[in-house]
Specification:
The chain has 16 helices and no strands. With 377 residues, the chain is mainly alpha-helical. It has two domains: 21-275, no CATH class; 310-377, no CATH class. Mean pLDDT is 74; it is low at 1-5, 310-365 and 368-377. It starts with 18 loop residues before the first helix and ends in a 6-residue tail after the last helix. Helix 1 crosses helix 5 (128-156), helix 2 packs across helix 5 (128-156) and helix 3 (85-115) packs across helix 10. It has helices at residues 19-44, 46-70, 85-115, 117-122, 128-156, 165-188, 194-210, 218-224, 226-234, 236-248, 254-274, 277-287, 296-303, 320-324, 361-364, 367-371.
């Protein structure tokens, strides 16, 4: 994304304006700019909308035709009579769109962090929780647009709903979308590379989708396994699907709403903790071999042991004169004689290749380094 699509700095308070009104305006501007950026990204990725529609339509038109005879359905709330299998799985497919889009939005967060855009966003003079919440709201709004596009296509193929249900389902879609987007945001805070996030997505998406009431009711799970029924009942995606199912018929499922809100709060808390700047600095120090400030004497004791070496001193390079001045050791880890193919590089290994030097640090450092004392952490 270009810098033109990044949020502009928070507007300054006009002379005579109250600080509270200026703060509210700054928060609103950040929300609008982040939503605009997400919308532009979505419009430039046209294949994203096509894939969001094709995936649930395949389940609705292809898999439902085969499962219709295999899975019998009973009259369960909110249904007042027997319904077709296509009608039953429609709320679950709406939840599928929310789930997949929430993960894809998180994939964009990992890309933003690699390119440095996320750092620019989080350095805005606004609370970090508000900036991340704006990302959640923006991705949820795009998910809702995709859900309504899918419902329109499903209606063309004969799977219709009560007209009032298209309006009453909007709050349920927004609540479930926020919860699933917060889950993706929490996962993105733990993944540092874009290549690793695809495996994490598959590990989360498919178990959550298949172990839920999206494709079959929970009493079918209970017939197969009581343990599987309990796992499906504890799945947050199950409660999101049931919340959407009841809302499509103008009914409220307060239990599902409570579980969805609780899961969303937990996922958002994990995401805020994952994007905490102090935690990022601690992880960077661990990668460099240092100790975070809150790890006490345990970490320092491990670092001060006789076998500990600084990461920069584990495999040091020696000058060419050092290699040419000493013969090769019997173990293959010593110095190389003059004229050796490894002269001027690293020590030779037993197999005859150029490897690493495993002598003590005191024997590898220059003389001037010992005058000032041992190297600190």
């Amino acid at each position: 994304m270009s810098d033109a699509t990044l949020p502009s700095p928070a507007p300054q308070a006009a002379p005579g304006a109250s600080p509270r009104r200026a703060a509210v305006r700054a928060h609103a501007v950040a929300l609008l700019w982040i939503a605009r950026r997400e919308a532009l990204r979505f419009l430039r990725q046209r294949a994203r909308l096509v894939s969001a529609l094709v995936r649930p339509l395949v389940w609705l038109l292809v898999f439902a035709a085969g499962f219709r005879a295999a899975l019998g359905l009973s009259i369960t709330p909110p249904y007042q009579t027997y319904v077709t299998y296509e009608t039953y799985i429609l709320p679950g497919l709406c939840g599928m769109i929310l789930l997949f889009n929430g993960m894809q939005s998180s994939l964009g967060l990992v890309l933003d962090r690699e390119t440095g855009t996320m750092r620019l966003l989080l350095t805005a003079p606004l609370p970090r929780w508000w900036l991340l919440s704006c990302k959640l709201v923006a991705s949820t709004l795009i998910s809702i647009l995709q859900v309504y596009a899918f419902l329109g296509v499903a209606a063309l193929f004969g799977t219709t709903l009560p007209w009032a249900g298209y309006l009453t389902v909007l709050p349920a879609l927004f609540t479930a979308g926020l919860m699933l987007a917060a889950l993706g945001l929490a996962l993105s805070s733990t993944v540092r590379q874009l290549e690793n996030f695809a495996g994490v997505m598959n590990f989360v998406i498919f178990p959550m989708f298949f172990m839920s009431s999206a494709l079959y009711p929970l009493w079918k799970m209970a017939e197969a396994s009581a343990l599987l029924h309990d796992i499906c009942a504890a799945n947050p995606f199950t409660h999101a699907v049931e919340l959407i199912r009841f809302a499509l018929y103008g009914a409220a499922n307060w239990q599902a709403l409570g579980w969805v809100a609780l899961a969303g709060a937990v996922f958002l808390g994990l995401a805020l903790w994952g994007y905490e700047p102090a935690r990022g600095r601690d992880m960077a120090r661990r990668r460099r071999g240092g100790c975070p400030p809150d790890h006490g004497r345990g970490c320092e004791a491990r670092r001060s042991g006789p076998d500990w070496r600084h990461p920069e001193d584990r495999f040091p390079l020696r000058p060419a004169a050092d290699h040419a001045a000493a013969p090769v050791s019997p173990g293959g880890g010593g110095r190389r004689s003059k004229g050796s193919p490894c002269a001027g590089r690293r020590s030779t290994t037993l197999a005859g290749g150029c490897g690493y030097d495993h002598r003590p640090i005191s024997a590898l450092r220059p003389a001037g380094d010992h005058v000032g004392g041992a190297r600190g952490p």
